[in-house]
Amino acid sequence: MAEENNQNAGTGNQAAGQQDKPQLQFALQRIYVKDISFEAPNSPSVFQQPFKPKVGLDLNTSSQQVGEDLFEVVIKVTAQVTHSEEGTTSFLAEIEQAGLFRISGIEGAQLEHTLGAFCPNVLFPYARECVDNLVNRGGFPPLMLAPVNFEAIYAQKKKREAAQAQPQGEQPTQQ
């Protein structure tokens, strides 16, 4: 019954002339692990000494359009933990956490911001949980990654791009 009401309401809006306006739509279609890897190259000797970890973390995001109004966003998390005194690798965990997002009615810089900051914010808790679970299954203590501010990362990226573009544009005028 509720579905019929919603369908009728949609038909009424179209009759009112709202069909010409681009309708804003943002919907998460699916969350999935695209790639996962775990290595403990120095086991079992790594378990025979006190665990004194030094964590190195690398984080990257990417996005691509995979269909009409359908975008894939991927967060790649690489955590390399070494023994703080010896420098030997305890483990290396790599995860590519991905999501499919249906986005319409958003274009240009706003779409770029949505794909570069908002979507990764949605996906990151899943990536954190996946890394923690993977490390724990590898026999190591949990590795709880700190929350990440993708808004700030996106702003820094845009600032770097603007700084790189500006000298290139200024050089020909100076010559």
TrEMBL record:
Biological processes, Gene Ontology terms: protein folding; protein tetramerization; protein transport
GO CC aspect terms: cytoplasm
Segments for region (Disordered): 1-20
Keyword Repeat: no
Compartmental location: Cytoplasm
UniProt feature, compositional bias: Low complexity: 1-19
Keyword Zinc-finger in annotation: no
Record GO terms (molecular function): unfolded protein binding
Entry keyword set: Chaperone, Cytoplasm, Protein transport, Translocation, Transport
Main subcellular localisation: cytoplasm
Pfam family, one: SecB
Function: One of the proteins required for the normal export of preproteins out of the cell cytoplasm. It is a molecular chaperone that binds to a subset of precursor proteins, maintaining them in a translocation-competent state. It also specifically binds to its receptor SecA.
Family from the record: Belongs to the SecB family.
Assembly mode: Homotetramer, a dimer of dimers. One homotetramer interacts with 1 SecA dimer.
Record's protein name: Protein-export protein SecB
